[in-house]
Fold this sequence. Notes:
Blueprint: H1 15-18, H2 46-80, H3 86-107, H4 111-119, E1 125-130, H5 137-141, E2 148-153, H6 167-178, E3 183-189, H7 193-200, H8 209-214, H9 218-227, H10 233-252, H11 256-263, E4 268-275, E5 280-288, E6 299-307
Helix pairs in contact: 9-10
Amino acid sequence: MVLPILCSKARWISPSLAALLPSSVCRDPFHVLTSNSLGLPRKRSDSDSRIEQTNLVQVSSVKNSIMRLEVSSSAKFIVKNVPKPKNEVEVFDDIKQRFLSFKKRVYMEKLEHYRRLAEVQVPKFMVIACADSRVCPSNILGFQPGEAFMIRNVANLVPPLENGPSETNAALEFAVNTLEVENILVIGHSRCGGIETLMSMQDELNSSFIHKWITKAKFAKFKTKSVAQSHSFDEQCRHCEKESVNRSLLNLLTYPWIEDRVKNNLLSIHGGYYNFLNCTFEKWILDVNIDCNTDGAKYLFKDHEIWS
């Protein structure tokens, strides 16, 4: 009797085979039958012998079937285990060469600097930027190792304190309270996929991680809709990209240990916007002014600059 193998691709035994492997199957033809309750030897009967012979035949059949399964699986594995395409290998070869070039031309030439960095970091900046692959603060603004403590997330958001723990406010806590950075810079950018997702959402019931995260910027969306309702969708997105940065700057002040340092002039909060369509960078400051009587405002955005 040869049992059909249901699946030769994966290493598993079909239900038909599994049914032939109960705990009572004899794998040793010289075993001693025992009483289930006392574990004492019991007398062998003719029926026991017949059962044992039948079980041995079944075990032999199972072994043969499993061997066929193993051979079939191995054959398919060998077929699939082909060399990776050359271009995949070349990608990491390129990264390897970049690293070796960095070590030779940068690390070794500034060896003492990197040895000091190995002992301690004293960055002046905390940078919060988008995870977008086109927006790299070190590349755009020239930050060198040791100059900026960074966190990157979808749409460069800073959730308020009331939203609870996140990797972003954990990084903020470490940067402000332990490293005592002097500046926090939140950088938005053009054609942000996270902001476009936010602006196109019809409701907040979507359970995806992206939608749950991006709704933290919903007040920036509300503000944009109120002031740019007649604008095109693309224009609304551009407006929301900057408004979201402003909202994140205000959210920073919901953390007491940030607000205290800002009020004591120990910490400055900056907004930035990188437009990679025309390679310009906008920069402004959040000014905390408790005594400001203009429309009852307590915070102002000032010193707006465009670098082009």
